[in-house]
Write a structure and sequence with these properties.
- This protein is an alpha+beta fold.
- The protein folds into three domains: 140 residues, no CATH class; 62 residues; 106 residues, no CATH class.
- It has seven helices and 23 strands.
- The strands form eight sheets. It has a six-stranded antiparallel beta barrel with strand order 3-4-5-10-7-6.
- It is flat.
- It starts with a helix and ends with a strand.
Length: 371
């Protein structure tokens, strides 16, 4: 009676559970040309409490301080520059990502990292630093106090440190001065690039768009690119059309893969991995070697020498291997793989060797990737 109730409960759950849909287009594909751009700059962090660069070792920091003083109208004798001693300044590299459609005046986050021998950037302030792109043009300017989330204190005998004190971040620390033009749909077409190129996914995406906006709206040019023609009703409102397309659900397909990491013992198997009829024999061999020393000493006040004799004990234990023969007329599913290998007591380390052997035998329908 209890089994019948349990079966009815499970059946009801299966019948009334919410159906699972595919992935959204915005999660598996990106518009060609809509991308971020990396920025980089060289700057100075001031206000450090004696944790900055050593001016005798970091000459580039000293030169940057000299240039900053000259730009601000402070006269410094070049011959006396080597006599400047400061421990509250550090040379840093400032990096940021300029997001697409960022306009002049908007703010972006910046990452600040020390390039000298400064021990900590805690409490420092980044001086105005131009951020340039690959074309050597300035696209943003960064400045402001750093946030580290780390500390480092100590003396000559001991030191206490938490996290990484030579890397900081400034939220909204850069102001965009120049935007990168992005052209979307100017020629009446959109080009989507799949994150994971796959012919089946590209075809499914094209068919989904065609069912919603008419035939020949989308066309997959290859396994990773889908061209979409903007309908006439959306020519003046491309943003709404992109929004409608990216909300669509597509059945995303992928290649059957087994990914293993031998260093960590991690194994990840896709749902489409299949095994043909295969026999697996699993056993463990344990070898234990112990080194002992037998010491023989002469009697008290007797003439003689202490004799030390090394002794080696070896113990070899081999567990009986279990033979598990899988006889199935159809392909073995991922659940059958897990149950069969767990039944013979295989550990994650053993599974890696077993999968390698199964792949070499030609019984695995899928790709084996070893990290």
């Amino acid at each position: 009676m209890m089994l019948q109730r349990l079966f009815i409960t499970l059946l009801g759950f299966i019948l009334f559970v919410t159906p699972c849909y595919g992935a959204r287009i915005k999660d598996i594909a990106k518009l060609n040309g809509v991308r971020s751009n990396q920025l980089i700059g060289y700057g100075l962090v001031t206000g450090l409490n004696g944790t900055g660069d050593d001016m005798k070792k970091s000459l580039f920091t000293l030169q940057a301080v000299y240039n900053m003083m000259v730009r601000n109208g402070i006269t410094v004798d070049p011959d006396e520059i080597s006599n400047i001693k400061m421990k509250n300044v550090a040379a840093v590299m400032v990096t940021a990502e300029l997001p697409p459609f960022a306009r002049s005046g908007s703010n972006i986050d910046v990452q600040v990292s020390s390039i000298g021998d400064a021990s900590s950037l805690a409490g420092g302030t980044l001086i105005m630093t131009p951020l340039k792109g690959p074309d050597n043009k300035v696209y943003a300017v960064a400045q402001g106090p750093l946030t580290l989330g780390a500390f480092a204190f100590g003396g000559k005998a001991a030191k206490v440190q938490q996290n990484h004190p030579t890397v900081g971040r400034i939220a909204n620390g850069a102001i965009v001065e120049k935007s990168v033009p992005v052209h979307v749909g100017d020629d009446g077409k959109l080009v989507y690039q799949l994150s994971n190129a796959d012919f089946t996914t590209a075809a499914n995406m094209s068919n989904t768009i065609d069912r919603a906006f008419g035939k020949k709206t989308a066309y997959p040019t290859d396994s990773g690119t889908v061209e979409v023609t903007i309908p006439e009703t959306y020519r003046d409102n491309v943003v709404e059309f992109v929004s409608e397309v990216e909300k669509m659900n597509v059945d995303a397909d992928s290649t059957a893969r087994v990914v293993v990491n031998e260093r960590t013992g991690t194994i990840v198997m896709g749902k489409d991995v299949k095994l043909s009829t295969v026999a697996v024999s699993h056993g463990n061999l344990n070898l234990v070697i112990r080194e002992n020393e037998n010491v023989v000493q002469p009697n008290p006040f007797a003439a003689g020498q202490t004799v030390v004799t090394p002794e080696t004990n070896m113990t070899v234990t081999e567990e009986e291997g279990q033979l598990n023969l899988i006889n199935l007329t159809d392909d073995v599913s991922i659940g059958d793989i897990a149950n069969a290998l767990n039944a013979i007591g295989a550990t994650p380390r053993d599974l890696i060797a077993i999968f390698q052997a199964i792949k070499a035998s030609g019984s695995m329908q899928g790709e084996l990737i070893i990290l």
